[in-house]
Amino acid sequence: MTSAPATERCLRVAVLGCGNVGGALVGILQERADALAVQSGARLAIAGIAVHDLDAPRPEHVPRALLTTDAAALVADPAVDVVVELIGGLEPAGSLVRSALDSGRPVVTANKALLASADGVALRALARERGVDLLYEAAVAGAIPLVRALRESLTGERIHRVMGIVNGTTNFILTKMDEEGADYVSVLAEAQSLGLAERDPTADVEGYDAAAKAAILAGVAFGYDVSGDAVLREGITGISSDDVAFARRSGYVIKLLAIVERSGDEGLSVRVHPALVPNAHPLAGVRDAFNAVFIEGEAAGELMLYGQGAGGLPTASAVVGDLIDASRNLLAGTTAPAPDRQPAHLVPESDLEAGFYISLDVADRPGVLGAVTTAFGSHGVSIRSVEQEGDGQGARLVFVTHRAREGDVRATLADLRGLDVVARIGGVMRIVGSS
Amino acid sequence: MTSAPATERCLRVAVLGCGNVGGALVGILQERADALAVQSGARLAIAGIAVHDLDAPRPEHVPRALLTTDAAALVADPAVDVVVELIGGLEPAGSLVRSALDSGRPVVTANKALLASADGVALRALARERGVDLLYEAAVAGAIPLVRALRESLTGERIHRVMGIVNGTTNFILTKMDEEGADYVSVLAEAQSLGLAERDPTADVEGYDAAAKAAILAGVAFGYDVSGDAVLREGITGISSDDVAFARRSGYVIKLLAIVERSGDEGLSVRVHPALVPNAHPLAGVRDAFNAVFIEGEAAGELMLYGQGAGGLPTASAVVGDLIDASRNLLAGTTAPAPDRQPAHLVPESDLEAGFYISLDVADRPGVLGAVTTAFGSHGVSIRSVEQEGDGQGARLVFVTHRAREGDVRATLADLRGLDVVARIGGVMRIVGSS
Q: What's the CATH code of the domain at B61?
């Protein structure tokens, strides 16, 4: 297979969406045009940039002449070789991606919501059927070269578990709560004023964003089709500064984790929840808005990939990597590996196992500890440590359990709620790496 | 391009060397044969395993019938499709790799010494000329998918700096010195008894191993040909428990780093030395024999890849990733990207800049501090902090400088050596991330 010199070839790229990421991408395609031509095997020319509003403010470097509001026409243009979708959300992004793939054009996207939807499954199938690339490194953990590592480097590896800090907003909030002892509400307000959290922070703080990424990881790391809706999900809004302080003095830090792990021969558990992570664990040191994904493989052992999970330039950097890949594959007549996926057998939450942190406000009188521990014991939940603080009015009991079935822990909590000596059940959180 | 079902194809793999890595590789190729066939597009059959001694003890799973002592004949066998070189060292490994590439067969190797030698440059050129893959993910940082991340995901990225903990033995020693307050000699002995350090530990503790990996990183991350011999190199044998204790109480941890960074428009600095790393830096949390590489890119920002840098199974895992890649490329008639490399303009050590930690044993009498600080000042080395400890006999002064030219710091040290109030210059170490 002989090649004409790279400079004689040209691939025309349609860019759909020109927000932070699209704007940064257009800048990189211009500034690094020569280097990218060498890497891609062809010059990457911008065929057009589809936007919602031609007159919205944009960086200087975005050429006005390339803007169009007709994304569908841009995708349908036969002169377009590759489509980059950065609009986000389900529609019109989904239809545009479908149209591009259907006509045999590779697509690069950062759209986690689309990929984690039922449409995502269909779009991957369509890409395979048409023999074109559908690449989405930027959809999980931004600039971190995670998808390619899983798809290519670790493709021969049997992966047992993937645990990720994949949402920068919640990691920023939890880091501030840990380092400054601040409470959730005030740190959320700070994150909002810094532009790190949306005015409606639900997608981040309730774990929806992380759940979509967990679903994508289940596909890339384990080869299972999982929809974002099927991911067990718990957010960080219930975490108190008392929970954070207990974790801190006990050698843990609280992180919102997206976890995908094998369970038994056929089962898979895909979930998002806050967890107590021991200080010595590599994920514990991931601060502020950074992301990291910790991978446990049979031969490779423990791996972690760390970096910026969001932001225009870092996300655009991941898009550029995919774009080079798509270009090279297009010129070579191949595609990136995209193995078959199977539907996942998701393990019910009640069958999962973990050590638990459980904080209870109780009456400060004799016999309380006995009543409470009896509730644990009657469901086979073994206590590893208990700490008591009295404050005159009542007392707080903080339990750390040995590894227990979640169903048993929930039954214990139901019993505890029924005890009149228990005033309130405070924080309940899983512990990572406990035995 | 249509493909026959994967199971109908077969690629024959020659395995050269059957130590820890080779033995683990043979095991993975057998145990995961079906999964690997799907990933590779062909069944990977072991054509032969070249060993030095047929009768050496080996794991049960290594088929005796495939062993041969004639590596050259195995490589020359026209039935062999891919060659995996795990012998290590320059010869005969170099000639065998040359012979395989010359006859158009892709090679996967974990041989950092070979790749960082002058032969390595020639072998990469030969692979390009013959249009075949020469892949070496396993040569730097073991199981960590670093080479592919740099070669593919970050290929569009302008990388400013790469800093790696790439030698597990020295990181184990430094971790123990930090966590247990032990001295170098006793921890080295412990590492030797655990099999983590060689009886002759020179290659690890003097930084030769890390220097070879730094040279390879200069190629993969920056596109420059650098030989391991050209890498500035300083080991860990001079680090005292006092140095470690100072670092600890000042919020640092000492790590042996391989650093490759751009300097000015054209220059490159490639070096290995111990450095004080701030506790909040992601590299500071890399403990024991783990490896990690921290990458600073223009668009991607800060990235870190962490994992096991050595060991049979983790290294074999990286070899398997490359083997799948080589197989897929062979079947598709393509090769992995292997851009042109240029000779590097290496920056002289004296022009590099860093903050410095400098520990001096001095006479405990008036005027000493003045004499010493004058020496710093006369070379324009600005002092950020100084700490004094007296012990009756004499005193110790520990300086931390602002960022300074290394040439100026060395001139300062020469002056200090000439002062009769300076009894001894103790630890001198660069600080990472200082301003």
A: 3.40.50.720
The residue type of B26 is V
Q: What is the pLDDT of residue A3?
A: 45
* Strand bridging mode A267-278 / A232-233: parallel
Count of structural domains, chain A: 3
Nearest-angstrom CA–CA distance, B356 and B428:
7
Residue A357 forms beta bridges with which residues? A400, A429
Q: From the list A39, A285, A286, which residue is nearest B156 (CB)?
A: A39
SS3 for A324-347 is HHHHHHHHHCCCCCCCCCEECEEC
- Report CA dihedral (B259, B260, B265, B266) to the nearest 10 degrees: 130
Q: Whose CA is closest to A223, among A138, A312, A345, A107?
A: A345
Mean pLDDT of B287-303: 94
Smallest CA-to-CA distance from A113 within A227, A218, A195 is with: A227
Read off the pLDDT band of B281 (50, 70, 90).
very high
Beta-carbon-side half-sphere exposure of residue A34 (alpha carbons within 13 Å) = 0
Q: List the alpha helices (DSSP H) in A240-367.
A: 241-249, 312-332
Annotated catalytic sites of B, by residue? 213
B153–A148 C-beta distance less than 8 A:
yes
SS3 B168: helix
Nearest by CB to A156, from B36, B144, B304: name it: B36
Q: pTM to 2 decimals?
A: 0.91
What does the pLDDT look like over B216-245, one tens digit per residue?
Answer: 999 999 989 999 999 999 999 999 999 999
Structure token digits, residue B195: 């099999």
Contact B256, B210 (CB under 8 A): yes
Strand, helix or coil at A278? Answer: strand
Nearest to A220 by CA among A330, A295, A287: A295
HSE-CB of B287 using CA atoms within 13 angstroms: 13
Strands, E assignment, A200-251: 224-225, 232-233
Report pLDDT digits (tens) over A249-272.
999 999 999 999 998 878 999 999
Between the alpha carbon of residue B202 and those of residues A288, B89, B235, B244, the distances in Å are 40, 15, 9, 21
CATH of the domain at A382: 3.30.70.260
Contact yes or no for A147/A137 (Cβ under 8 A): yes
Side-chain half-sphere exposure of B10, counting CA atoms within 13 A: 7
**Half-sphere exposure at residue A148, Cβ-oriented, CA atoms within 13 angstroms:** 31
- A137 and B153 within 8 Å at the Cβ level: the answer is yes
Q: What are φ and ψ of residue A177, in 5° steps?
A: -60, -40
Instruction: Measure in Å the smallest separation between the Cα of B216 and chain A Cα atoms.
Output: 18
Backbone angles phi, psi at A343, to 5 degrees: -65, 145
**Residue ranges making up the domain that contains B120:** 6-142+313-343
* Amino acid making up residue A227: S
End-to-end CA distance of chain B: 56
Q: Are residues A279 and A164 in the same domain?
A: yes
Task: Find the residue in B nearest to A1 (Cα).
Answer: B333
The verdict on A251 and A357 lying in the same domain is no
